[in-house]
Amino acid sequence: MHAEPDPQVAAAATPCQAVDARLQPLLAFESAHSFWNNSLFAACRAGTLTKADFQFVFAQYYLYSKNFTRYLSGLMANLDDDLLRSRLSQNLWEEGGGAAPEKRHAQIFRNFLRGGLGIDIAAIEFASCTKLFVDQFLANCIQRDAQHASAFLSLGTEGIVARMYSILVEGLRKAGVAEEHLEFFHIHIACDDDHAATLHDILCSFREKPEWERMCRKALDLSLCLRRDFFDALMNELARRRIDGHLQRIQAKQSLLTKDIDEARLRFLPAQRSAAPMYANKVEAMNIDFTVDRAPFPAEVIDARVVRIPPHKNNERHKHAHETVFYFVSGTGRVMVDDRWIAVEPGACVFVPRWAVHQSQNQGDTEMVILAITDFYLTGKAFLGDYESTARMKRS
Ligand SMILES: [Fe+2]
Ligand SMILES: [Fe+2]
């Protein structure tokens, strides 16, 4: 599902006209920076994050966002020029909601957390990577001189807002967050070019200083690297949190078998054909013809399936994050595992490591029935991406 491009967003993403020509190499450095390839943005573009994933991401981002006026205040306190200080106060005034403090940006962000993502703000616990990011961010604005802080906050922060928030909005829309809750992002995409221009002017006020461009580039790079590493750390944390429940249950020494699970869910007959397979594909030109059924087991790591391939047909050549053991119930033929072909007959087992390309070929005159025991319920949870597109030729 792709949303139409927002004309407001596209207009705001145009670089500020009044930018000093000497900033151009720095702006080019910023727009080609590896920050833009961080794993959070990749997931937003691909639409692979759920609302629950964004609950974690933006609950963490809240610590950064609610401290924003402190970053500006740090720069302001270190700024010698009173005219530039008063211009910067405009940014602070708008961040604080102007004459309406209930419209301060921190509050609008809280509205988004509550209304858009259903987050209980009082219950948020900040991860150590989040605290570290905000501490470092603050230190770069308060403890460093005004030239460093202005490069850090202009080129490396305000200047990236429109493009950055457009990507995050794309991910939020794809996760089903309603447009009415995205005000925080829209006001920043629309207005922060003015904020960035003020900060650019502050930065350019230092341009006669020795090694101005090199110092600016260093501050810009630092700002982008800190944010890139923070976003990547959030994604790693997200993968870990998805399987946290599994780890806790492993340690709890409690059976997963609950009263509501009846015996029928503990038994599976690979030989029995089901009326509606979980996946099937038939492509005459590629000799593909097979079905997949899933065992009803109440498992949280092991996912057992039965694959059926008619005589002289094969399944799709594919790969995926889960590991698999094939047990050949019937049929003779061969299995491709990356660059090897393994001969199989009834009773044989074949191991397919994760991400190895594989395919089963039925070379005999009887149906090939394979019991495939995988760890899909674990890896399917841990994998941050579109699992189906990695493992299937068509959408089921
Ligand atoms: Fe803001
Ligand atoms: Fe497979």
Brief synopsis:
With 396 residues, the chain is of the alpha+beta class.
Describe the model.
- The structure is a single chain.
- This protein has 396 residues and is α+β, with helices and mostly antiparallel strands.
- It folds into two domains: 7-242, Heme Oxygenase, Chain A, CATH 1.20.910.10; 263-391, Jelly Rolls, CATH 2.60.120.
- The protein is 47% helix and 13% strand.
- It has helices at 7-12, 24-31, 39-46, 51-66, 68-78, 82-95, 105-117, 128-142, 146-153, 161-174, 183-204, 212-242, 244-251, 376-382, 387-391, and strands at residues 279-283, 288-294, 303-309, 324-330, 333-337, 340-344, 349-352, 358-362, 368-374.
- The strands form two sheets. The chain has a six-stranded antiparallel β-sheet, with no helix packed on it.
- A hairpin with an 8-residue loop joins strand 2 and strand 3.
- It is elongated.
- The model is unreliable at 1-18 (pLDDT under 50).
- It binds fe (ii) ion (2 copies).
- One fe (ii) ion is lined by residues 68, 95, 105, 188.
Topology readout:
Layout: H1 7-12, H2 24-31, H3 39-46, H4 51-66, H5 68-78, H6 82-95, H7 105-117, H8 128-142, H9 146-153, H10 161-174, H11 183-204, H12 212-242, H13 244-251, E1 279-283, E2 288-294, E3 303-309, E4 324-330, E5 333-337, E6 340-344, E7 349-352, E8 358-362, E9 368-374, H14 376-382, H15 387-391
Antiparallel strand pairs: 1-2, 2-3, 3-9, 4-7, 4-9, 5-6, 5-8
Helix pairs in contact: 3-10, 4-7, 4-8, 5-6, 5-8, 5-9, 6-11, 8-12, 9-11, 9-12, 10-11
The structure holds fe (ii) ion (FE2) (2 copies).
